[in-house]
Amino acid sequence: MKKIFGICGVFLLVTIFVGTTCWGLDEIVEKKPFFLMEFLLVSGEKISPVNIGYETYGTLAPSKDNVILICHYYSGNSHAAGKYSPGDKAPGYWDAIIGPGKPLDTDKYFIVSSDTLCNMNPKNPLVITTGPASLNPKTGKPYGMSFPLVTIRDFINLQYKLLTYLGVKKLVAVTGASMGGIQSFEWAVAYPDFVERVIPIIATPKRHAWLVGWLKLWGDPIKLDPKWNNGDYYGGEAPTDGMTYSLMLITLSAFWSPWADGSFGSKWADPSMDPYASMDNQFLVEAALYKRGLGRVKTADANSMLYLNKACTLFDIGHGFDSYEAALKTIKAKVLMIGVDTDVLFTDLAVKQDVEELKKAGVDAELFMIKSPLGHIGGVVHIGQASDAIKAFLAE
Questions:
Q1: Does a cis peptide bond (omega within 30 degrees of 0) precede residue 49?
Q2: Which of 86, 178, 269, 311 is the most exposed place for a label (fewest CB within 10 A)?
Q3: CA 306 to chain centre
Q4: Measured between alpha carbons, how far is 181 from 187 in angstroms, rounded to an integer?
Q5: What is the torsional sign of CA 40, 41, 44, 45?
Q6: How far apart are CA 166 and CA 44, in angstroms?
Q7: Is residue 63 a contact partner of residue 76, using CB atoms and an 8 Å limit?
């Protein structure tokens, strides 16, 4: 467990470190900007201008139809594979399944991975995004909470414009983990004739109250921090305490009890400071959660986190249709859902129920369950378990 946790830096909802024993894409990749003078949101409001970043791996076929799109998770970005420079300590988060001969085979497919609107980490120089931390050209100041409400549909509509810009004619598949997985489902109903397959990983196609509850817990610490100031903190002190606590909650809910027991057990944070002796003395797991949360704050933006929370809370492919079942019946793509048996956020029960509902609606859907002691994060760390299933699915 500790070995898995300590080798390479990777983010899935939280700052964690996971190991990979083989690299899929042994090459230098480039983050590229995609710019629009204006972008119309589902709400009818417009953002002007808009910037997001993207990366590509492999070669676009002359027919421009060998494309796989990767949508990133809540705290991630488009860096899914390869390295930006030879000195980088770790490759992209899904490098283990992207590259020659890997499930997402760069000898066969042209893979596109994009940043979203309101990326949680706008202070990361390798993230290109437009969101509440961006300057509003009308005021010359950051948007803050005046930034328009965005949805998962807005994320994929912007991705569609990126793909159109690249000349893509259709998608072999859309995939992604967690928030990337729900974007995959959104693609299936929004562009049914453009997408042949979707591979949602650790995600479900509709809003489950259980996840909405977690999102509420993730966001509220920010709002309870006086420094948040209703989102008007740019130029002053950011709500670091609230963000740190939010990221601690995100970290814990993204894992499962064997991770905590195996990594920390009942060890004291400081061998000389007995937790039984003082209210302030902590166990190692308490200190580790705080340290990781505080470290993650350096690149994060509180308002952006709240916007992502809201987008995930609103997600349900049935929105805009007469019913959820009606939305399911519009899906033409084949679906491979990949869950994790110990996932606390998208539970195995929810995943299994949803795949059965897809089948009842006539969708060609199948399920693969990863067995992992790491909970939600197992969808990235142990994605190798699904390699054969993904290869077979893409070959159908």
A1: yes
A2: 86
A3: 15
A4: 10
A5: negative
A6: 25
A7: no
131 vs 344: CA distance, rounded Å: 29
Q: Which tokens belong to 166?
A: 């690249």
Domains of the chain, start order: 2-395 (3.40.50.1820)
Sheet strands (E) in the chain: 8-11, 15-18, 32-36, 39-40, 46-47, 50-57, 67-71, 110-114, 135-136, 141-142, 171-177, 197-201, 334-340, 365-370
pLDDT band at 124 (very low <50, low <70, confident <90, very high): very high
Residues 6+ apart with CB under 8 A from 249: 217, 218, 221
When the pLDDT of each residue in the chain is averaged and rounded to a whole number, the result is: 93
User: Parallel, antiparallel, or unpaired: how do β-strands 110-114 and 141-142 relate?
Assistant: unpaired
Segment 193-230, tens digit of pLDDT:
999 999 999 999 999 999 999 999 999 999 999 999 99
- What is the per-residue pLDDT across 303-361, written as a single tens digit (0 to 9) for each? 999 999 999 999 999 999 999 999 999 999 999 999 999 999 999 999 999 999 999 99
Contact 50, 38 (CB under 8 A): yes
First to last CA, the chain: 35
Q: Has residue 48 got a pLDDT over 80?
A: yes
> What are the catalytic residues?
178, 343, 376
- Structure-token pair, residue 62: 């002359």
Q: Tokens at residue 192, please?
A: 């049914």
Query: How many other C-beta atoms can be found within 10 angstroms of the C-beta atom of residue 48?
Result: 13
Contact 75, 249 (CB under 8 A): no
Q: Which residues pair with residue 258 across a beta bridge?
A: none
Q: Is the pLDDT of residue 167 over 70?
A: yes
The whole-angstrom separation of Cα 92 and Cα 21 is 14
CA 242, CA 337: separation in Å to the nearest integer? 34
Q: For the chain, percent helix, then strand, then coil, each to nearest 5? A: 35, 20, 45
pLDDT tens digits for 68-123?
A: 999 999 999 999 999 999 999 989 999 989 999 999 999 999 999 999 999 999 99
